[in-house]
Design brief:
- There is one protein chain.
- By secondary structure, the chain is α+β, with helices and mostly antiparallel strands.
- It folds into two domains: 1-40; 53-218, Glutaredoxin, CATH 3.40.30.
- 58% of the residues lie in helices and 11% in strands.
- It contains eight helices and five strands; from the N terminus they run H-E-E-H-E-H-H-H-H-H-E-E-H.
- The chain has a five-stranded mixed beta sheet with strand order 1-3-2-4-5.
- Helix 3 (109-120) runs antiparallel to helix 4, helix 3 (109-120) packs across helix 6 (161-168) and helix 4 (125-139) packs across helix 5.
């Protein structure tokens, strides 16, 4: 073999080696990015997290109902009396969990969720949750911010207003709401209300469907 051919062979082997190294690096980098993204999202999406808000913890739990909700959503408000009735009627057997899913097109949905989360930090989650639906007709569909209205609710409840204002402005509170929303998207939530019963999405067209689904889950 001539010297020229030997040099050509060495050069080809070197190029091939460099390509192999480059491919390995790209694949490894892709895996790291995927792992990092999964870690950021907290792994597989969960219907209920350790920090999810439990409205009713049933002492003799037989079923868990989770609602992804938007406090400005009129359909959520239409389902609200049924959810409350189920909670009262089956309080010993039905655990009820709520998760935030403020629809971006609703101007005050996120403000409302942040207000509820701020109230939750002072042990008044349920009171603010109920107040939002009780007053939705007064502030819903407004295009201007109603954060001051929600602050008024907090004052009426006797919350520590310095703490409330600090929590409303706290990036961690905003992030807490956003985490629920993001996980809802990963779970296939596309609108509100969306219900999960014992970890499975429930297809409902009206409040009666929800009642029947819960009663079936609780049946002996």
């Amino acid at each position: 073999m001539t010297t020229r051919r030997i040099l050509q062979s060495v050069l080809l082997l070197g190029v091939a080696g460099l390509i192999a190294i480059l491919v390995w690096f790209i694949l490894s980098s892709g895996t790291d990015d995927t792992d990092a993204e999964a870690a950021t999202q907290g792994g597989d999406p969960q219907v209920v997290r350790d920090d999810s808000h439990v409205i009713n913890q049933a002492p003799d739990e037989k079923a868990v109902l989770v609602e992804f909700l938007d406090f400005e959503c009129e359909v959520c408000r239409a389902y609200y009396p049924t959810v409350e009735q189920l909670r009262e009627q089956y309080s010993d057997e039905l655990t009820l969990v709520i998760r935030y899913f403020p629809i971006p097109s609703h101007a005050n949905a996120n403000n409302a969720a942040i207000a509820v989360e701020a109230a939750a930090r002072q042990g008044e989650l349920e009171a603010m949750y109920q107040q939002m639906y009780a007053t939705q007709a007064d502030w819903g569909e407004a295009r201007d911010s109603k954060a001051h209205v929600f602050r008024g609710f907090a004052e009426e409840m006797g919350l520590d207003m310095a703490q409330y204002d600090a929590d409303v402005a706290d990036a961690d509170v905003t992030a807490r709401v956003q985490r629920d929303f993001d996980e809802g998207v990963r779970l296939g939530v596309q609108g509100t209300p969306t219900f999960f019963l014992d970890g499975e999405k429930v297809s409902v067209e009206n409040p009666g469907d929800l009642t029947r689904a819960v009663e079936a889950a609780l049946a002996p």
